[in-house]
């Protein structure tokens, strides 16, 4: 039988202390972020709006679309990131305000008493609201564009340097949302698929930025529309679950389970296929930045790699969806297997500080 030496005991104690300190700092960061995000982002947004009203050039760039060159024609440039930065702050404020002043009161109307459950109800209600609005906007833009269910239009007449005001606003606000989602991912209750979700967000941001810069907003619009529909049904199913409409929740989850493979695997795979085989038919595949051309065999491989990486993550999630479908077929309610168990947390009493916040 062996015993730990004093040095080993000291090292173990030091390791435990460091781990506890790290967790404590992470918890403190989350608490401070949650306690101050509404007021902090409100002050920043109002300051930018006031500065814009007073004519400050940088504030004006934060609130308006830059690089107008003609009637409903806009170029792209570095000033666009002022607009993106403002909307990162604005989405953080809108999310916090909607959750506190709209969705938490609605949750109380449905007698959702545990704070933790009301919080997740509010999170899903915000998610549903965002995706419903931006999926509709994205589909409207695509419907009124040449690339409506026509993948060849991703490449015909490339580069598509000038874009409409609606397309530019939609694209930059989507970028702002996904940047804001990285922050949100770290302040919400951590889920089992945290790292898969983080990787998904990073790849999405890289694809939005690169496609915008290289003048491939048409294909970016199509990809975003493919991704957003399933999230509408998933968020709605969770909302229905929290308010106790189990049967309607299962039906909505069925629509989610049906829309996911159609949009995120079939239609998205068609986009990957189009990116693989079609460009050489319509493009000279030359790197000419001065002409707005950035698509070469090398950049094509990068896009395919990013698309396939995104698809791999979604296959991992689809395997989880199949597990939920099996639960429903066994007579159980639909549950999101990506979420941690809620029973223990939901039975805890609300903390006084949180009662004051909400």
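^ structure tokens above, recovered residues below v
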């Amino acid at each position: 039988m062996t015993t730990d030496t004093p040095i080993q005991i000291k090292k173990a104690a030091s390791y435990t202390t460091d781990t506890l300190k790290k967790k404590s700092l992470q918890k403190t960061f989350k608490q401070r972020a949650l306690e101050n995000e509404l007021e902090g982002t409100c002050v920043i947004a109002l300051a930018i709006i006031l500065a814009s009203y007073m004519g400050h050039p940088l504030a004006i760039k934060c609130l308006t679309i830059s690089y107008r060159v003609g009637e409903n024609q806009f170029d792209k440039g570095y000033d666009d990131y002022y607009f993106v930065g403002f909307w990162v702050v604005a989405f953080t404020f809108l999310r916090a305000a909607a959750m506190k002043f709209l969705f938490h009161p609605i949750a109380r109307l449905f007698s959702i008493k545990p704070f933790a459950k009301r919080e997740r109800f509010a999170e899903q209600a915000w998610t549903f609201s965002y995706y419903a609005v931006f999926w509709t906007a994205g589909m409207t833009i695509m419907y009124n564009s040449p690339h409506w269910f026509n993948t060849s239009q991703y490449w015909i007449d490339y580069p598509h340097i000038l874009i409409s005001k609606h397309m530019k606003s939609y694209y930059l606000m989507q970028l702002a949302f996904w940047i804001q989602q990285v922050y949100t991912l770290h302040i919400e209750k951590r889920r089992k698929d945290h790292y898969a979700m983080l990787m998904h967000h990073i790849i999405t941001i890289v694809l939005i930025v690169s496609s915008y810069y290289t003048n491939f907003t048409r294909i970016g619009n199509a990809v975003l529309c493919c991704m957003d529909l399933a999230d509408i049904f998933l968020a709605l199913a969770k909302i229905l679950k929290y308010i106790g409409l189990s049967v309607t929740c299962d039906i909505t989850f069925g629509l989610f389970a049906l829309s996911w493979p159609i949009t995120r695997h079939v239609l998205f795979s068609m986009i990957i296929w189009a990116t693989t085989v079609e460009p050489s038919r319509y493009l000279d595949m030359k790197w000419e930045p001065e002409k707005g051309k950035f698509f070469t065999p090398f950049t094509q491989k990068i896009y395919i790699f990013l698309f396939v990486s995104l698809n791999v993550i979604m296959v991992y999630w689809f395997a989880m969806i199949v597990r939920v479908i099996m639960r429903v077929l066994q007579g159980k309610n639909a549950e999101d297997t990506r979420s941690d168990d809620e029973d223990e947390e939901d039975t805890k009493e609300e903390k006084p500080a949180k009662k004051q916040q909400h």
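Residues 340-358 have pLDDT under 50 and may be disordered.
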